[in-house]
Design brief:
Blueprint: H1 2-23, H2 29-53, H3 57-60, H4 63-87, H5 91-102, H6 106-117, H7 122-149, H8 153-169, H9 171-184, H10 191-202, H11 204-215, H12 225-252, H13 260-270, H14 278-283, H15 288-313
Helix pairs in contact: 1-11, 1-15, 2-7, 2-9, 2-10, 2-11, 4-5, 4-7, 4-12, 4-13, 5-7, 5-12, 6-7, 6-11, 7-8, 12-13, 12-15, 13-15
């Protein structure tokens, strides 16, 4: 148990530091937004580029890991869509619930966790997660949100194109794609550039957790608590269960058998609370209340669920 706490305590202690600094007024919420932009637009892109470009392409693009993460995510979207079709009051809340059930915070919480559990694989795990999330899971959830608004099929088709184009413009995706190109072409990275990327990447882990803690301050907590609890439960229990089932099924069929570290990593990646932009997307639909409650519940309860999974898997 002490080994588990040595992993979860630093993560939640850093989150608590972020919460306290904003709660006591040492940092303003706007300050945390700036720090978050630095992590999202500079530190993590540098980390992804270096992690991918400095490795052989076959080592980076792990089809078994990606297949398990993608199939588990698609299964979660399907089950959540069916469940929340029955329990959510309208299509907008259903779409927000599906997004909260399926999209983990791989950058701000997942990477620091993997850095403590699997330090040799953490950067590659982040790259694989980001690839599946940004190319498949997040676009599907954004499409569901757009469908909830209604409109013509032609307008929806244009919106889907805009979503996919927007994904390609994200700094993290650009860093990942440039890293993949450098890996495929076996381009050497000069030592000074390598040191720069390593220095920027080193700042991502602790700072991202502090940002998460700070963003929890002042969340609007007026909304459907019952729906929020269902979203939180789906994210922390359903999603990792579906990914575990996918990974086990792929191995049982003789298609992909993940080594123990990656098997544990892909399940833990799915068990991470929802990503930080969740409340932003919900706010566009006037549903920031239920999204904020779900995020607070999931972030708090994940201390227990992640500890349990770490005890079982590692």
């Amino acid at each position: 148990m002490g080994a588990i706490l040595s992993i979860t305590f630093p993560i939640y202690a850093a989150i608590a530091i972020g919460y306290v600094t904003v709660r006591r007024g040492w940092f303003k919420p706007a300050d945390l937004q700036v720090l978050g932009r630095y992590v999202m637009d500079i530190a993590l892109p540098a980390l992804l580029f270096h992690a991918v470009a400095s490795r052989d392409f076959a080592e980076v693009l792990n089809p078994g890991y990606m297949a398990a993460f993608a199939l588990g995510g698609l299964a979660t979207i399907t089950i959540a869509f069916l469940w929340f079709s029955a329990t959510a009051p309208d299509k907008g809340r259903r779409a927000i619930a599906v997004m909260g059930s399926t999209c983990p915070n791989s950058g701000f919480i997942g990477f620091p966790l993997m850095l403590l559990v699997f330090p040799d694989h953490a950067a590659v795990i982040l790259a694989l997660n980001m690839l599946v999330e940004n190319v498949l899971l997040i676009p599907i959830c954004l499409i569901l949100l757009d469908m909830a608004r209604g409109g013509s099929d032609m307008a929806l088709a244009r919106r889907i194109g805009a979503i996919l184009l927007g994904v390609l413009k994200r700094p993290m995706v650009i860093g990942l794609l440039l890293g993949l190109a450098a890996s495929v072409l076996s381009l050497p990275i000069p030592e000074p550039l390598t040191r720069l990327f390593q220095m920027l990447a080193a700042s991502a882990s602790a700072l991202s957790l502090v940002v998460i803690g700070g963003t929890l301050v002042g969340l609007p907590l007026k909304g459907n608590w019952r729906l929020a609890a269902q979203i939180s439960g789906a994210k922390l229990i359903l999603h990792p269960a579906m990914v575990a089932l996918a990974a086990t099924g792929l191995a049982g069929l003789g298609l992909f058998a993940l080594p123990p570290d990656l098997f544990a990593a892909v399940i833990l990646s799915a068990a991470i609370p929802m990503f930080g932009l969740y409340t932003v997307f919900a706010q566009e639909h006037g549903l920031q209340g239920v999204a904020s409650i779900a995020m607070l519940m999931a972030t708090s309860a994940a201390f227990v669920t992640l500890s349990a999974l770490l005890f079982y898997l590692t």
